[in-house]
Design brief:
Elements lengths: L1 H10 L2 E3 L2 E4 L2 E9 L2 E6 L8 E3 L2 H9 L8 H7 L9 H9 L15 H11 L1
Antiparallel strand pairs: 1-2, 2-3, 3-4, 4-5
């Protein structure tokens, strides 16, 4: 426990209620069983123990931001939010999104010819 507390202190984390917290947000749990360190991230879908080499490594895992890819629906829903409310990360995700090549886009019945005609009218 002393090793965990020392490592948490370096990151400014708190140990409360059987977990490690950063500003009231639970990051996860770190412990050692049979001389083997492990960590469980609070945000993980599958709450399983991730093996680590030390208390330092375990707390470091909790300090890292867990990256997840938003679903296609989540990204498309962002298109209907006010643009000034999108974060820089959301803009970047929208910018980089490419539908899989086998995925057809629902364009509300419009065809390429319809879009070309609309572009011609706007010019």
């Amino acid at each position: 426990m002393v090793q965990i507390a020392d490592e948490c202190e370096k990151y400014g984390f708190e140990i409360l209620n059987y977990g490690i917290y950063d500003q009231d947000q639970k990051l996860g749990e770190v412990s050692c069983t049979d001389s083997r360190w492990w960590v469980i991230r609070a945000t993980s879908v599958h709450q399983h123990k991730i093996p680590c080499d030390s208390a330092f490594d375990a707390v470091w895992v909790l300090s890292m931001v867990e990256l997840t890819q938003p679903s296609r629906e989540e990204l498309l829903n962002k298109l209907f939010e006010p643009f000034d409310q999108l974060t820089a990360d959301e803009w970047e995700q929208l910018r980089q999104y490419q539908p899989p090549s086998d995925e057809s886009l629902d364009c509300g019945g419009f065809t390429d010819c319809d879009f070309a005609r609309i572009e011609g009218m706007a010019a």
